[in-house]
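Re: that chain you flagged

S.,

Sorry for the slow reply, it's been a week of failed gels. I finally had a moment to sit down with the sequence you sent. For the record, here it is as I used it:
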Amino acid sequence: MTGRIIIDLFTTLDGVAQAPGGPEEDPSDGFRFGGWQAPLPSEAVMGSVMAGMETLDALLLGRRTYDIFAGYWPQHTTGPEGPIGQLFDRVPKYVASRDAGIQLDWQGSSRVGDDLPAELAALREKHQDVHVIGSVDFVHTLLDQQLYDELQLWVYPIVLGQGKKVFPDGAAPHNLRLVHAESGDGGTLLLRYAPAPGEVETGTM
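Prediction finished late last night. Pasting the structure tokens below so you have them in one place:
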């Protein structure tokens, strides 16, 4: 059975997915709302995140997210975050980068990026569920080239008005198909989409 490339993003109602976890996560372009997710805890979101961990058998990350993960998770393999830390430490980690000389010191890490369509096809043959977590800049490439199987969005009831969006201006037009939707506590929504075939059509109402 062919595996899946699953994109996981926390996003605001206006589509901002930049730096939900903390102020230093991604302050690029003067983003001043880093850590916007922290004041909005949701048991439903965490429950669905943990459910996704049960089938995750590889990570596919952009370089910035990889560096953040590599600096954090190997030191958090015990305690409340232990199950996630142990999983991330154990599974293969694929890092999207055009720099063939990058240093990837976290165990099980290797580079992709020379031929993404071919490399991701190979990952689907090798793994069941490859998760792309965060990595907004890299996600834009996956979305534009439709190199994904599922886009999973946890949407929070907050508007920031600035920051990197899931679909920024200039994103490649394409159709999506809603495969699952559910509401959670605190006004959160879980929306899961798959790419749909065909060109985007227009008409008159």
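What I noticed first: Residues 43-53 form the longest helix (11 residues).

Talk soon,
D.
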